[in-house]
């Protein structure tokens, strides 16, 4: 019972992050599962099994809100499913001693990305309306799907910024299309783990607890995103992911760092993390108080207002799904 409660809390925390940032559900939940001692392959399998439910609900909601470009879903989702299946079977074949530090390295890289992106970077703009080519989306899907399965997460952190950087699709449709296509990735990864681990390798009760926690957190995330700026929340979550996975690596047989080295590393991470949070808060306050120039009607491309900056999108979660909508930054507390 204690384990199920911890897993439900892990799902709750992961959904709070994903519902506020539009990414990092898998990275956050897998990191929390590893922190309570779950086997790496079982952790990723559990997360992806739970994601079948959350991504299905998310995709339906995005479709109803008009946030899905089905051409993008097909071009990135099907290759992503292939990559996820391959990644799941690959991770299932690794020994626990090798899989744990390997997954920690992937999660550490993704955590560093989340930390730096939400601390320093905004959403790009330009080329809006131009079609996204299959030769760009297909390789992206394969790589993102493989990393998502082997690292327990990564579909959103890899796929979303890459498509945003192209500037060819408005942010709400980028998030909606990536979230919807993740259903295919979750199904393929779950099948891959079923082949590699067998039905005994996946604990259905764990997946159910993780899913239940995510569903409970959905309305809370909708409230949270209106009160905590995504930029600040991203810096906070990125720091947690980095700290947790550095701890795993330092204690692994790969490194076997002494206590002195470990505490020195933790101190450095805490200092950088605090500096990143302070920078994010100051940048948010400057942006909130800065005067905004009115935009003349019809003077810009459709959706231009949505791509102005990182905090120009509100990830409003409803029934476990995320809907992107433009908001006025001055309304944030």
TrEMBL record:
Q: Where is this region: Disordered?
A: 292-333
Which Pfam family is one of this chain's hits?
TauE
| Keywords noted in UniProt | Cell membrane, Membrane, Transmembrane, Transmembrane helix
According to Swiss-Prot or TrEMBL, what is its membrane topology?
A: Multi-pass membrane protein
Places the protein is found: Cell membrane; Membrane
Q: Does the keyword Cytoplasm apply?
A: no
Tell me, in one coarse class, where this protein mainly resides. Answer: membrane
- Please verify whether the record's keywords include Transmembrane helix: yes
Q: Where is the composition biased (Low complexity)?
A: 296-312
Membrane spanning residue stretches: 102-123, 205-225, 232-250, 262-281
Entry similarity comment: Belongs to the 4-toluene sulfonate uptake permease (TSUP) (TC 2.A.102) family.
Which protein are we looking at?
Probable membrane transporter protein
């Amino acid at each position: 019972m204690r384990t199920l409660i911890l897993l439900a809390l892990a799902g709750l925390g992961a959904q709070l992050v994903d519902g506020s940032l539009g990414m990092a559900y898998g990275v956050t939940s897998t990191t929390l599962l590893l922190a309570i001692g779950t086997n790496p392959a079982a952790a990723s399998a559990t997360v992806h099994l739970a994601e079948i439910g959350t991504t299905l609900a998310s995709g339906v909601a995005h479709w109803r809100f008009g946030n899905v470009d089905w051409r993008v879903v097909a071009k990135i989702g099907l290759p992503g499913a292939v990559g996820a299946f391959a990644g799941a079977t690959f991770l299932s074949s690794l020994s626990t001693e090798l899989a744990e530090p390997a997954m920690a390295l992937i999660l550490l890289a993704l955590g560093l990305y989340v930390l730096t992106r939400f601390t320093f970077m905004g959403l790009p703009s330009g080329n809006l309306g131009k079609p996204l080519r299959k030769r760009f989306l297909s390789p992206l899907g394969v790589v993102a799907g493989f990393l998502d399965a082997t690292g327990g997460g990564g579909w959103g952190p890899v796929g979303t910024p890459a498509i945003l950087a192209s500037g060819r699709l408005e942010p709400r449709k980028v998030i909606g299309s990536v979230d919807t296509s993740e259903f295919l990735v979750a199904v393929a990864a779950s099948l891959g783990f079923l082949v590699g681990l067998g039905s005994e390798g996946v604990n259905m009760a764990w997946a159910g607890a993780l899913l239940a926690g995510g569903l409970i957190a959905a309305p809370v995330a909708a409230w949270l995103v209106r009160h905590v700026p995504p930029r600040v929340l991203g810096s906070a979550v990125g720091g947690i992911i980095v700290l947790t996975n550095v701890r795993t690596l330092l204690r692994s047989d790969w490194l076997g760092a002494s206590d002195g080295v470990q505490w020195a590393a933790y101190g450095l991470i805490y200092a950088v993390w605090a500096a990143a949070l302070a920078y994010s808060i100051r940048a948010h306050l400057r942006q909130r108080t800065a005067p905004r120039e009115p935009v003349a009607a019809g003077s810009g491309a459709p959706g231009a207002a949505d791509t102005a900056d990182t905090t120009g999108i509100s990830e409003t979660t409803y029934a476990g799904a995320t809907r992107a909508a433009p908001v006025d930054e001055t309304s944030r507390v």
